[in-house]
Every structure is written in structure tokens, then in C-alpha cells.
Amino acid sequence: MGSEGSEGSQITLAGESGPAAVTEPLAAEDAKLVVLARSARLRAYTPRGELAEGAAVRDTDGRTYAAATVGHARQELATGALRAAVVAAAASGARRFEAAAVVSENPAVAGDDLAVLAEFGAGVPVFLAGPDGVARTRAVV
């Protein structure tokens, strides 16, 4: 969930043409992010049936932060899971990220949420997994 009109939109940074299918098993640290994101998704606040998402980010010190969708009656005040995870990390002092994972039924991560992550630097891989925890795509912001 991003700002109004950004659901499912995809931004591409760092010279990539778009998300690529994940065909190889994830590295252990990236698989851990997917597990954390999947767990966070279960805690999403979606009282009006908003799409529940979970996300996790890993900073350059190896610390991980997870968060979930927070819905709101006013769509523009809803917070997407990736944005929430980045905000939690930044509030704890993180300024650079190594990787991120989002667990969602959406086919793409919201562009506005990717833009929040990109604010902290380019070259960060973002894995998108389904609710089953299987990574489907990898993008780089």
C-alpha cells in the first residue's frame, strides 16, 4: 500500500529494466528477510480489507527490521509494509540498506514504497515473495 494511485506501480532504479524472476534459491540472509516479512504480514492492521503485506529490511550493520501494512480509513494515510520497515530502521539509526523483502499478493511492490527505500541509497535488492514465502521477483532500487 503506498500513496493513492501508486498501488502496484513499479519504479526502477540502479540501471535495471524491471524486476527479474527469482530462479535460484535465496542466500540464507535474504531467505531470513522473507521469513521475517512473512511473519510480519500476519500482524498487518487491515480492518477494511486492505491488502496485507509484510516487509523486512537489513541494514549495512546486519540488523533487521520488520513491519506490516497499517491500513487507514483515509487511503492516503495508509502505510505500506516496506515503507514502515524503512521508517522503523531509520528511526533506529540505519542509513544504508543491504537488502529488503516484501511478502504480498500484489505482483509488484508499490513505487512509492520503493522510493522511500531508494532515498537511503541505490543498489539495494528487493525480493517480492508470495504469502507462501516463495520469492517470485527481484528488483534493485
What is the topology?
Elements: E1 20-21, H1 28-41, E2 54-59, E3 64-68, H2 81-91, E4 97-103, H3 111-118, E5 125-129, E6 135-140
Parallel strand pairs: 4-5
Antiparallel strand pairs: 1-6, 2-3, 2-4, 5-6
Helix pairs in contact: 2-3
Short descriptors:
141 residues; alpha+beta; 6-stranded mixed sheet
Range of helix content: 10-25%
Helix tally equals 3
Choose one word for the global shape.
Answer: globular
Class by helix and strand content? alpha+beta
* Uncertain ranges: 1-16
Radius of gyration: 13 Å
Main beta sheet, described? 6 strands, mixed
Strand content: 15-25%
Mean pLDDT: 89
Strand element count: 6
Strand order of the largest sheet: 1-6-5-4-2-3
Task: Summarize the helix and strand pattern as letters.
Answer: EHEEHEHEE
First-last Cα distance: 18 Å
Please describe what this structure looks like.
- With 141 residues, the protein is α+β, with helices and mostly antiparallel strands.
- It is built from 3 helices and 6 strands, in the order E-H-E-E-H-E-H-E-E.
- Strands 1-6-5-4-2-3 form a 6-stranded mixed beta sheet.
- Strand 5 and strand 6 (135-140) form a beta hairpin.
- Helix 2 (81-91) runs parallel beside helix 3 (111-118).
Q: TL;DR?
A:
The protein is α+β, with helices and mostly antiparallel strands and 141 residues long.
